[in-house]
Amino acid sequence: MSKDTSHSLLLYDSCKELSEKFKKLESPQDVAQLLEVPYKNLIYYIYRKSEDSRYNTFIVPKKSGGSRTIHSPNKSLAIIQRKLSQVLYTIYRPRASVHGFAAKRSIVTNAKAHIKKKFILNLDLKDFFDSINFGRVRGVFIAKPYEVNEKVATILAQICCFNNKLPQGAPSSPIISNLICAKMDSELQRFAEEYGLFYTRYADDITFSINRDELPSALVDSYKKGLPHVVLGKELKSIIEKNGFQINDAKVRLAYKTQRQAVTGLIVNKSVNVNRKYIRNLYGALHAWEKYGLEQAVETYISKYAKKPILPEKDIPAFLDSLRGKIEFIGSVRGKDDDLYQKLLNIFNGLRRKEADKESIAVE
Hints:
Blueprint: H1 15-23, H2 28-34, H3 39-48, H4 51-54, E1 55-61, E2 67-73, H5 75-91, H6 107-112, E3 119-124, H7 134-142, H8 150-160, H9 173-194, E4 198-202, E5 205-210, E6 220-223, E7 230-232, H10 234-242, E8 253-256, E9 262-263, E10 266-267, H11 276-292, H12 294-304, H13 316-334, H14 339-363
Antiparallel strand pairs: 1-2, 3-5, 3-8, 4-5, 6-7, 9-10
Helix pairs in contact: 1-5, 7-8, 11-12, 11-14, 13-14
C-alpha cells in the first residue's frame, strides 16, 4: 500500500533516486511531482499567495555588531524548500575547500586546514545572500552541470527566491549559495594551487593561508607584518568580482604567526582551539551558579555573557541548555578526551546533581 506523502516533511526516496528524478525534470509539473506536492498547491504558494504572507521578516543582531535581516518562510513554503534542498544535496558535490553547508564539515574542519601557518588572510563576501538574485539562481540551473530547461529553472528559482534575491532564513538558501559559488570555488582553488596557498570557504567567509615568508602579490598587493592595513591583489579581487561578489573591505584581516590567528572564530596558531574569552565566560557562569545559586546565575549570565534575545529572562532550562551546549562545543573543537572539556563537564554535572538533591529535599 503506497504512503500519502503530499504532507510529508521529507522525501523518502534514496539519494540516487532523487538525483535521477532531478535529471529527468522537463516541466513545472515534474517539479511538483518530485517534491510530492500537488501542482496547484505549488503554484499557489509561489505565485498566487502574496509575497508578504509567504515570509516572516525580523532583525537579529550580529556578533560583530550591526544587524541581519532574516526572512523565514511560512510553514508550507518551508516544507517545499526543505524538500528541494534535500534533492539538491544529492546532486551537489562540494569541493574539498568548501566547509559550510556540507555534510560532515563544519567551522572546525574549516579551521583545521589552516593550523600552524605563517600567514592567514581572512575575507568576507559583502551582502552574501542579498547579492544572489533570481537571475543568478535561475541561471545556475540552466548552466552545466545541471542543464534543466528554462521552465524548470524558473520554477526552481521561484521556490527559492524572495524579493528577487536569496532570502537568508529559507531552508533552501544554504545549498543554493553553494551551487552559485561552485565556479568561484574552482577558480580560487586553482589560484591557491598556483601560488602555493591553502584555500577554504565557509559560506561567506574565505580564508587563505601560506607557510612562505612572503606573500604573492596576486594575493596581497601590499602589507606590513603586524599592521591591519592590507591591499588585496588584483588577481584575487578579479576572480571574486567576476563571479558576482564583492569583498567587504572592513573585514579583511591578515595575521602573521606571532599574532592571534583565527579562522571562523577558532584559534589556529598551534592547534584548533576556542578563544580564551569564550572559556572565561563559561567559567564565570559556572562560578556564579556555584556561589550564588541557579536563579542568580541566570541573571548574571544574561547581564554579562548572553545575548538577551537568545536567552529569555530567568529561563532556567534555556540557561542550562546554553551552558551544556557551550561545553559540548568545546568538546567538538578540542576533542571529548580533552582535559578542559572533561573538567567543565564534571563541574556542570556536579552542579546539576546538587540542584537535584535540593529539589528532592524540598519535596520531602
